[in-house]
Amino acid sequence: MDSLALEQSIEFVNSKLGVPQESHPLCSKISSCRQDTSGEPLLNIYRDEHYTVRAVFDANSLKFFAVTMESDQFKPHIRWLYDLGSLGEFTYKEASAADGIEPTAAMIHLGNRSSSYAEIVSVGAPGHYQGLMLGSAPDGFGNLPWDSKGAEALNAKQISSSDQQARLAAASSFRAGSVPNTIGLFLDDGGTISKLLHDPQNAIAILHAGTNL
User: Fold this and answer.
1) What is the CA radius of gyration of the chain?
2) pLDDT reported for residue 91
3) Dihedral sign, CA of 3, 53, 155, 72?
């Protein structure tokens, strides 16, 4: 985690994480993705016994990465605008510790074989143009608190309303009782990847990449 930073090249990331186990055109995983003049954004997936890294590159520049813990032996310490603590030891609500720092969008997926969740925090210049994604990846470490009733309440609101503020309000119980297994950062610069990551549905699609779930 400490070796990763936005805008690094594919070659540099590979030198730190090794050859990716999988590499996909991002637009093959996200239906709303469109190739632009900079070329096809690329999604690389790096796996280790204790973690998975999903990295999105555009024009050979790292625009988004998400680190998922795969065991309780991997609990990286997280700093964003402030100290969040160790991954796997704070709830979604506790991650919103600073005044005015709240998720700007959230979405849950409840499937027959797996469930997942992603929330986005986009604060622009105050965040030094680094957006935050917290999530529960379907292939990540599963022995963490997950508020099932809160998840069902959020899912019901998603079905009945497309209003993001109503969905965020409905996510309150789930966020208070659930712990993320994934942390992600994206370059929140208004570019192609930034716009995609403002939609948590796209973040969930990335978290499902490389799984059969």
Assistant:
1) 16
2) 96
3) negative
